[in-house]
Amino acid sequence: MIIREYTVADPGGGPYAITTGPDGALWFTLVHSGRIGRLVPGEEPTGHRLDPACGPTIIATGPDGALWFTEYRAHRIGRITTGGTVSEFPLPTPDCGPFGIAAGPDGALWFTQTAADRIGRITTEGRVSEFPLPVTGAFPSAITAGADGGMWFTLNQANAIGRIGMDGTITVHPLPTEAAAPVGIAAGRDGALWFVEIAAGQIGRMTTDGRVTEFPLPDRAARPHAITPGPDGEQWFTEWGGNRVGSITVDGVIRVHDLPTPRSEPHGIALGPDGALWAALEPGALARITRS
Fold first, then answer.
1. Active site (catalytic) residues
2. Which residues sit in the known binding site for substrate?
3. Residue 292 has what pLDDT?
4. What residue numbers bound the domain in which 190 lies?
5. Per residue in 27-58, pLDDT tens?
6. Number of domains into which the chain is organized
7. Which residue ranges are tagged as binding site for Mg(2+)?
8. What angle do CA 182, 102, 267 make, to 5 degrees?
9. pLDDT above 80 for 128
10. Are 69 and 91 in contact (CB under 8 A)?
11. Which residues pair with 69 in a beta bridge?
12. Where does substrate bind (predicted)?
């Protein structure tokens, strides 16, 4: 395994989430400095300033060819074009703490509201709808589009995985392990949902009919944070507490790899435009991960 790190921000800038944009560049959030970064592999990084205190967290490509992101501390949804033009949309519920965001099959963006027990939907024109969850204090976190036409999300404090249909119907699936605290979630190429259990040190797999399989990590204190499909049919994840990245096959074979820099606090991970995995490291770098 070859891992190289590329500095993209000052120490403390806080690279947090990362995605590949429609322009063939990596786009990432800088949660502590209030910026959106852009990196074409092999070139120098560039950045776009936001409100320094807005706390940009998760970023995703929208159906309109722009990048959409949550502003966790400013309680807004943001949009940035590949040319760098930023728009921001206030949300109806005060202090709702938007976190996860993903494009849905209906041409809108869907997002979680950690502090309001709601799932939100925003059209590319900025119209917002909100859907209350059937549980309270659930801290809905990451969200992804499933192969079944619904949006799936983690309920970090409710110890469950949720699904919302395009009609707003919500289903909650409890997890077998108590206090597992799921965070990241992604749709696998096998048609299932894969998620990380940050407090239990496990990777979970859920079929669209709600059947769960859990795979313990070699280091149960690794605090896995984010997960994404890789180029090889495996799922790749970050170990925030273990200073590692790892992969898991469909049948549960896990491999983990140490990051070169101690205490690099890996958060988001995504497949890059160059076919490599890229992870966001909070002290100010992106890590590129390849097998050779």
1. 267
2. 225
3. 72
4. 2-290
5. 999 999 999 999 999 999 999 999 999 999 99
6. 1
7. 265, 282
8. 50
9. yes
10. no
11. 59, 78
12. 225
